[in-house]
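Archive entry: two folds, one per protein. Generate the first.
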Amino acid sequence: MNEFLTIILSFPTVVYGVLLALCVIYWLLAATGLFELDTVDGWLGSDGDTIQPSSVAGMLAKIGLSGVPLTLVLTTLALFGWIVCFLAQRYLIPLVPGALRGFAGLAVAVAALVPGILATSATLRPLAMLIARLRPPIPPSVLGRTGQVVSPSVDERSGRAHFDDGGAGLILQVRAPPGQQFHRGDPVVLIEHLETANAFRVMSKTEFDQQ
C-alpha cells in the first residue's frame, strides 16, 4: 500500500492523477447540477457543429472523436495517461540511474500522451459514431449557402467548412467533387447532402456563380 501511494504521489504519475481528480470533481459537480455537462466544451469551443472554427474541434476530428464531449475525452485521456505513468514508474524508472530519474519522469509524462491518445480514440470512437447517427439531420435549407473552408484542405474524402446560419454558425463535414480540391479560406457553396457519409458536397463559389 505504501509503495502504491508513493508511486501515485510522485512525478510523473501525480500529473495525470491531478488531472484525473479534477475531471472526477467536475463530473460530480455536473451530477449535482452546479455545472452543465457542456461547460468546458463551451469554454474551449469544441462543438464542431454549432460554433466558430476551433482548433480543439479540429484535433478531436483528427482522432475520430468529433461530437464527443471534451470533458469525457479529457477524463479518458487522463485515466490512460495515469495508467501508463504508473506502470512506467513501477517497472521502468527504477532501472534508470538516480541522477537521471527526473529527466526519465519528464520523458514518460510526455510520451504517455501517445498511447493515451491512441487508447482514448479507440475507446471513445464507437461513442462518436453513435452520436453521429443520433444527431438530428441538418435542414435542407442550408443548401445553396456560401461558406469558407476551415480544414487544411477539402477533397472527395474529407474536409470541413464554416457556414453562417444567422447565429453562432455551422461547421459541417464537406466533400469536394471527384478530382477537385479546395484549401483553407476558399469560398464554397453547399450543393448536395450526402446522407451515407453524413456530409455535404460543395463546389467553388466562383464556379457556382458562373452557372
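Generate the second and append.
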Amino acid sequence: MATLIHETDRMSSLEIAELTGKRHDVILRDIRNLLKQGVNAHNFVEVEYTDKKGEKRPCFELTKKGCLILASGYDAVLREKIIDRWELLEIEKRQPKTPQNYLEALKALVSSEEEKQRLALEKKQLEQQNAKLQPKAAFADAAFATDDKIDIGMSAKILKLGFGRNTLFDKLRKAGVFFANRNEPKQRFIDAGYFEMKEKFIERNNHPGFVVTKVLVTQKGLAYLNHLFGGNPSDGKLAKIV
C-alpha cells in the first residue's frame, strides 16, 4: 500500500482505489468531475505513474482536504476507511524514523550529538549567569550581617513555624502586616519596632554599583511573629500596635 508521497502530505488516487475497492479509473473519473465543479485544483494534482507493463498512466496526488472532499461523495464506510488511513499516516509521520542504512544512521548520530552540544551550551550559559549573580548575593549577605536582627527566612526557621520565607511573606501580607502588593511592612509595624528596612548601596570594582533593600526582623518582631502565628507571647516584649 502507498503512503504519504514523500513529505508533501499527499495521498495518491491509487491508494484511494485500494482502500475503497473501487477501480482506479472510477476514482479518476470522480476526481475530474469534482474539478469540473470548480473545487480547488491545489488539492488534486495530476501526475503520472508507471504501471506493471512499464507504461505511463495518469493518477492524482490528493491533499488531506482533497481526500475529504472526494470521500464526501462516498458512503459512510468508504469515508471511514479514508479518514482512518489519514490518521494512521499522520501517527506514523510523527514517530521517529528508524535509520535504514549507514548514511541515515550517521545523520541521526550527528543530529544527536548536535542536540547534546546545544544542551551543554545552555547549561554553560546558565552556570555563567549564576556566577554573575553570586557575587551580588554575597555582597547582600555581607551588607545585612547583624547580631540582633535577622531576615524573614531565618525568622521562620528560628520560630519553627513549619513553613518558609515565601509563605511567611504571604501570610504577613494577608494578615495586613505587610502591604498587599509588596513584601514590605506597613509603617506602624516599623514604628512599633518589629521590623526595619535596611538599604545600602553596594560598590563593585569594574561593575556598576547597585542598591539592595531588605526587611529585617528585630528581637521584638520575633516575639510578635511567634504570638501572631500561634506561639506564646514573650512577656513584656510585644509592643502595642497603634
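Annotation attached to the second fold: Confidence is low (pLDDT under 50) at residues 1-7, 136-146, 233-242. The chain is about 50% helix and 15% strand.
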